[in-house]
Amino acid sequence: MPFAVYVLGLAVFAQGTSEFMLAGLVSGIAADLDVSLSAAGLLTSAFAVGMVIGAPLMALSSRRRPRRRALLLFLAVFVAVHVAGALTPNYGVLLATRFVGALANAGFWAVALTTAVAMVPNRLKGRATAVVVGGVTIACVVGVPAGAVLGEHWGWRSAFWAVAVVSLPAVLAVLRSIPGGRDTGAAPVPVRDELRALTGPRPRPVLLTMALVQGATFCAFSYLEPLLTRETGLGAGWVPVCLALFGAGSFAGVTVAGRFADARPVAVVATGMAALTLGWAALALAAGSPVLTLALIPLLGMLAFGTGTALITRVLSLAPGAPTLAGAFSTTAFNLGAAVGPWAGGLALDAGSGYRAPVWVSTLLMVLAVLVAAAATAKGRRPRAGERRPSAVHRCARGRL
């Protein structure tokens, strides 16, 4: 695996820390800037919206630039807005920095995914994708808890400074390790052709499936703290432990998926989705038991991010005619789920359905994802007149998702 692929994973680690660290900082931000908790929570929403909008827009804006130049530009903007966020006393400015930072993050993600898979042979594309996505899982294990500790001892601004500082080595590493020229002398693929490749009958349901899977993941993950402390009966000190367990499981899932997604992508996705559906339902039923809950959390992290990695690999393999936008659309689908999932879980909580309700919503979202994937598999091969229809197992094995 080229060293440059790991460099991209390092940069994604810093950006993933920024994306998720506000979960432990909203109270400090609200108090310092004299705004409500809900207003502080909008900082997370602004980031999610920026990611959804920014991935295709930033990828298109950088498609005629060499990849190294585009990656460096996105990283430079990302560092600058975190310095500005750490310095500003104004909530509106901070909100704007979150949105702009998300645009830069989305652009980096989109270019990084396509850059990573372009640097390796076909048999290693899944592993390269896993290394890049693995930066997010390491952020969940290390970066997010560390940001919470910094915020508790030195204020929320210290976490913003830390993200900016951690991003600087990635800037230098990208400068030295990513090739500076264009990959080929050929003109970029027309945008219309890329969109046609991505909206075809095979990539489209995979993107929708990815959004639903990530929606399920972030719906439950966003409300893990009240579930643990008010339903499971664990103390507040167990929350960072459980977050770290989920992140450790996520890292394991990404690693395993990277090993097997190239050879058996559909089998990995199908198995992961079925297990996730059962897993979220099991957590909702077992949330009252501390032992079962602690056992399920890392397993669900492994399944969620392992399946997500395999789905990203699947999109990139199904849309070779979209070298610029395949990574962008994958990023958008990923973050669309990250935005919609917590919103749906919040509706369930506000309806008075209890602290297990978001986990049941995650289960429902996974059922929808399974139905979408099953429908896509069924349409993948229609038998001709007089032809015997293959079984679902054979269709799945032949890669009809």
For this entry, give a set of tags.
80% helix; mainly alpha; 0% strand; 401 residues; globular; 16 helices; disordered C terminus
- Principal-axes shape call: globular
Q: Uncertain runs with pLDDT below 50, 5 residues or more?
A: 392-400
Rounded Rg: 21 Å
Structural class per helix/strand content? mainly alpha
Which percent range fits the helix content? over 70%
Number of β-strand runs: 0
Q: What is the tally of helical segments?
A: 16
What string, H for helix and E for strand, traces the elements in order?
HHHHHHHHHHHHHHHH
Q: Approximately what portion of the residues adopt beta-strand conformation? A: under 5%
Rounded to the nearest angstrom, the distance between the terminal CA atoms is 28 Å
For the biggest sheet, the summary is: none
Look at the structure and give the mean pLDDT. 81
Describe this structure in a few short sentences.
It is built from 16 helices and no strands.
How would you describe what is shown here?
The protein has 401 residues and is mainly α. The protein is built from 16 helices and no strands. The chain has helices at residues 3-20, 26-33, 37-61, 67-87, 91-118, 125-154, 156-177, 191-198, 203-222, 224-232, 238-260, 265-286, 290-318, 325-350, 357-380, 392-397. Helix 1 packs antiparallel against helix 7 (156-177), helix 12 runs antiparallel to helix 13 and helix 12 packs antiparallel against helix 15. The protein is globular.
Give the helices and strands, then pairings:
Elements: H1 3-20, H2 26-33, H3 37-61, H4 67-87, H5 91-118, H6 125-154, H7 156-177, H8 191-198, H9 203-222, H10 224-232, H11 238-260, H12 265-286, H13 290-318, H14 325-350, H15 357-380, H16 392-397
